[in-house]
Amino acid sequence: MSICLKIFIVSFLMISPLKAKCTFRQNLKKVISLSGPMTVLLKEVGLLDHPALGGISVFNPVSKEQFKKKIYPGGIFLANSTLKEFKDSVVFFDESQQVKNVLKLGEGIISEEIKTRNVLPLEVMKKLGEILRGYTVQCEKELQAYQQKGELIQRNLLKKIPHGLEVVFYLGGFKGQRLPETVIVHDGVVKLLILENKIKTYPSQLSYVNWSARMMSSFSSKLKHVAVIDSGMKLTQAVKKVSQRVTLIYPGSLVPGLSQLEAFSYLADHL
Predict the structure, then answer these.
(1) Which of 80, 85, 157, 232 has the fewest CB atoms below 10 angstroms from its CB?
(2) Chain-wide mean pLDDT for the chain?
């Protein structure tokens, strides 16, 4: 083997891993993620520190140490000055007609709405992967690992939850002896647990509903009340139990997809 050929092979082996790294497409000037599920995916595939990623939402489960660039208020609170910063950017955002209308006012913005309502966790993850493929190259390995991670966590979660568990999940924390007003039913991981016949929960076909005393009276004394709090950028993880009342605090616990699966798996370990 000639010296020149040896040098070429060594150079190729040294350079090829760099070329294979998951990255945004070269034609993208700037990417903004106001979507919690998409930000989680960007973290999983190693794109949080990519130069093209210019900002994320304050509601996303990523700390300021993990992401040192611009953090936007998100939602309908986007100011005109913020829209100017979004010029010629791809902006991912969670399903919202109001946000969609606001982004239409920006110049050169390509808005990508992430629809997750009433969608099961693994389906959310699959949909996110399909969307991100349109804006990235050489990410297939990372995207497959992301999906497989979700599948593993979901399998283990379903093993941990006993059949017939009586539990009601709430948005937000307890206020003294008062239960939070809004119950989570047919959405995200709770919907998954219902469809898998793992839990007996609040009787409603809605995704979220305000509970009534009459409906609550149909449960036994074993009913667990679980308040779900998303700690977001603080990344706090905790399960606090007082009798039949449980508080789950976890980053991304209300973000559809992977982080919510992780949150409920964490909860199951502490029930």
Answers:
(1) 80
(2) 91
Distances (CA, A) of 259 to 10, 28, 63: 40, 27, 14
Tokens of 112: 């990508």
Check the CA dihedral 22-26-32-34 and report its sign: negative
**Please, are residues 92 and 35 in contact by the beta-carbon 8 Å criterion?**
yes
Between the two ends of the chain, the Cα-to-Cα distance in Å is 64
Q: What's the CA gap between 65 and 47, in Å, rounded?
A: 15
Angle at the Cα of 31 (from 21 to 93), degrees rounded to 5?
A: 120
Q: What percent of the chain has pLDDT over 90?
A: 83
Q: Which long-range contacts (CB under 8 A, 24 or more apart) does 240-248 make?
A: 241/270, 245/174, 246/271, 247/173, 247/174
pLDDT tens figures, 176-215: 989 999 999 999 999 999 999 999 999 999 999 999 999 9
The candidate with the shortest Cα–Cα distance to 261, out of 162, 63, 236, 269, is 269
Supply 189's token pair: 């991981």
* Token pair of 175 as six digits: 């206020």
Amino acid at 170: Y
Contact 91, 111 (CB under 8 A): yes
- pLDDT at position 4 over 60: no
**CA distances (Å), 52 to each of 29, 70, 132, 138, in order?**
6, 12, 14, 16
Q: Each residue of 25-57: pLDDT tens digit?
A: 999 999 999 999 999 999 999 999 999 999 999
Contact criterion met (CB below 8 Å) for 167 and 129: no
The CA distance from 271 to 268, in Å, is: 5
Task: Please give the average per-residue pLDDT across 63-90, as a whole number.
Answer: 86
